[in-house]
Fold these 2 entries.
Entry 1:
Amino acid sequence: MTDTDLPLFAWQPPSTVIAFPLVRRVGKIRHTASKLATKHGEDATLYWKQVVSSQRKHLSRVGLSPEEIDVELRTFFDAVQCQMARMVYERQPGGAA
């Protein structure tokens, strides 16, 4: 074994491929946003917690680390917020997003 033949130099970090990342699940994003738009206060909070809990369990079952799950849920949250903003804009006169 030579100095440049060490296994440490050949090591590559494990890569994770997410087949269907939450941010690309447009139907789920639209459904969640439309449900949240009809709820207010504690009802909206409770619904959001249910969605996050079920998605967290799903992502954990498919083998994502807690850090990766947090990133996925954050991007999903951002996508739902953007969809809700689009829905409000589309309801305004002259607004066709």
Entry 2:
Amino acid sequence: MALRFIGIDPDTNGDNCPSVWVDDTDGSIVIQGWEVTDSAALAQVAARSPIPDHEKVVRIPRRMASMLMEACGAEAASDVR
């Protein structure tokens, strides 16, 4: 796995910050964020898509959306809008 750093939450102090990466071997997006532990939120997610034991639901701030679009590439970003 060759991870390429895209960006880090600009409104954090640099310690335990959400960040976005791209795996250059397969193009997948790797996200570091805050683990969602709220049972109501997890139930909403699980109602649409079950959460297996080997997966986590994470939250990143909206202000990082441009980093996700960059990770997807310019052409993919225009499809998201």
